[in-house]
Amino acid sequence: MTHPVPDADADLQHGTFRFPPAIFAVAVAFSTFQVITAAFSPLSSTVVRALHVGFLLLMTFLLMPPAGRRWIGWIVGGIGFVFSFYHWIFEADLIQRAGELTDWDMVIGIVTIVLVFEAARRVMGIALPLICAAFLLYGLFGQYLPGSLAHRGYGFDQVVGQLGFGTEGIYGTPTYVSSSYIFLFILFGSFLEQAGMIKLFTDFALGLFGHRRGGPAKVAVVSSALMGTINGSGVANVVTTGQFTIPLMKRFGYRAAFAGGVEATSSMGGQIMPPVMGAVAFIMSETINVPYVDICVAATIPALLYFFTAFLMVHLEAGRAGLHGMPKEECPNPWAAVRERWYLVLPLVMLVFLLFSGYTPLFSGMVALALTVVLIFGFMLASRFGPTGIKILFWILIGVACSAFFKFGIAAVMTVIALMALALAFVRGGKQTLRDAIDAMANGARHALPVGVACALVGVIIGVLTLTGAATNFAGYIIQLGEKSLFLSLALTMLVCLLLGMGIPTIPNYIITSSLAAPALLEMGVPLIVSHMFVFYFGIMADLTPPVALAAFAAAPIARETGMKIGLQAVRIALAGFIVPYMAVYSPALMLQGGTWLDTGYVVFKALVAILLWGGAAIGYWFAPLNWFERLWAFVAAAFLVAALPMTDETGLGMAAVLAVWHLVRHRRRQRAQATQGAGP
């Protein structure tokens, strides 16, 4: 993998990044372009996608220049950026001659495809480009393969046209989502982080749980869950909250590997935590044509079960190892933290309200982002006013000015922001606030690089599958297998997700497997959202599963432990992530897809019991240590609850009840024996 220029790795590891001035200007321009196109839609979607990819190429080659030479990065990235304007300048001509490429079309298309491959290699390593290259070769030479694997054959110009100019290649749905929803939400999270949302979440979690048994690890789980509501990137979550939580866990007795595993597990859960889930959720919404809010509703219960599992695991591990919490006097007051930065929660509340009111993610994200900036600027200006009455009057005026949104649209709010920015330039401390806002824009653009480049490159896979119809053949094989056993089909899909996840991030993992396997699961009667969620969840689990566990390796330098050991602990902690998707397939009510509230309540109860059993089996502790036979019993009972065969629920619940009674009786006997010994002479 090609690394960024000197000092970049260290900065990225600690969640910061020092931009050279020229690259900083490019990053700010990138964010400005995205905000303007999202707010005012001055350009067609095709042009926005092309320029989005152009900016991605320019920034990638500037931050990770060939041979470490920045001037080469300017040349190579500049070519990709300039070529993106071809789609704008000749937009009408390209539409009129669709499918018939000129010589210049071929040059632009080939160079852009090559640069996207190379940019992806620099950002995320060789694995994803190799997989996409295999699909590209299949599109070019698949007619020479034997039997049903072969396609009818396509010309070189057809493949280039499909991938470099159509809306099913590198400018397909993933790039559309990246250039609209995803970038806005990344920018939204960047502004909130810059304003102190991380400190708010950390102090709140520390105040509530830091003094309890195993408190530091519970802080990691809760703060990562809260961060997941604004930041859908698992790895970014690791390197932000992990800087605080992992050393804290180690200081209070947790093993380094376990501490890293807790943070990796909790952070990856951010991708399934509404209201701002990972980028995959937005791509899923567009792919299956389902409102984003429906994706959030379906994900809510599984996300809560996921974090309940992580919380339970750290609680049991603390009990097993005899770990206590922090002294209460060392923990901050959670409500004082809320009183100090309560206004940062308002954009999140507005975002949830708009999404659940039926507005699009693009509109909701734009309004939430604008509100965030208004609040950040407004509180800085208000702090300069002395009397409370003047502050209240100031906020009333701001509210009235922003209410012009309902008549004049987002332009009214943008005008208010511009006037506030002008005022800040002349207020003590205001220039620092403006610098922080501009830094947030630059950092948002940088955080969007891996997501955007991955979305562009996986368009190669979508384009080839669409052109050749190969996805239908693969789905047919899974359906044939599913006629004999749905479980085997699910297990095969899970293995494909985990194997792909050894080399590629969650987004391309989901896109590949959803294109191949999700339609087959749908044919076998699995509800639409559940089939795609199944693929999504195991794409996330792949980042926790050794030998290549991205989130675990991101936590390794902070924990000062090997990524392999952290990954093994993460798998142990994240058991629900492996179990809940299967339970949702057999009981779709878990994702609120069919059934009554009674059905949902029953399957949630069953899932909670299974998680308690898995926790006891994995950690070896409940109220007291579990011996090997009790752990085996718990494992088998949990397996029965997941199996969803006749009488398995009854068997599993019965075994759970027997084990609970036996364990409680044995625990009380031990307590009485210890009390008797303590009272002896």
Verbal overview:
The relative contact order is 0.10. The protein contains 34 helices and no strands. α3 (45-63) crosses α10 (173-195). The chain is globular, with a radius of gyration of 26 Å. Helix content is 76%, strand content 0%. The model is unreliable at 1-16 (pLDDT under 50). The chain has helices at 8-13, 21-40, 45-63, 70-84, 86-89, 91-96, 103-124, 127-141, 156-164, 173-195, 197-209, 215-228, 234-251, 256-268, 279-288, 292-321, 334-341, 345-356, 361-382, 388-402, 405-408, 410-424, 430-468, 470-484, 486-500, 506-516, 518-523, 528-541, 550-559, 563-573, 575-586, 597-619, 628-643, 648-679. It is mainly alpha-helical.
Strand content: under 5%
Using only C-alpha atoms, the radius of gyration works out to: 26 Å
Q: Cα distance, first to last residue? A: 68 Å
Shape: globular
Give the structural class.
mainly alpha
Q: Can you count the beta strands?
A: 0
Runs in which pLDDT lies below 50 for 5 or more consecutive residues are 1-16
Major sheet size, sense and barrel closure? none
Q: Tally the helices.
A: 34
Helical content stands at over 70%
Determine the mean pLDDT. Answer: 82
Summary?
The chain has helices spanning 8-13, 21-40, 45-63, 70-84, 86-89, 91-96, 103-124, 127-141, 156-164, 173-195, 197-209, 215-228, 234-251, 256-268, 279-288, 292-321, 334-341, 345-356, 361-382, 388-402, 405-408, 410-424, 430-468, 470-484, 486-500, 506-516, 518-523, 528-541, 550-559, 563-573, 575-586, 597-619, 628-643, 648-679. By secondary structure, it is mainly α.
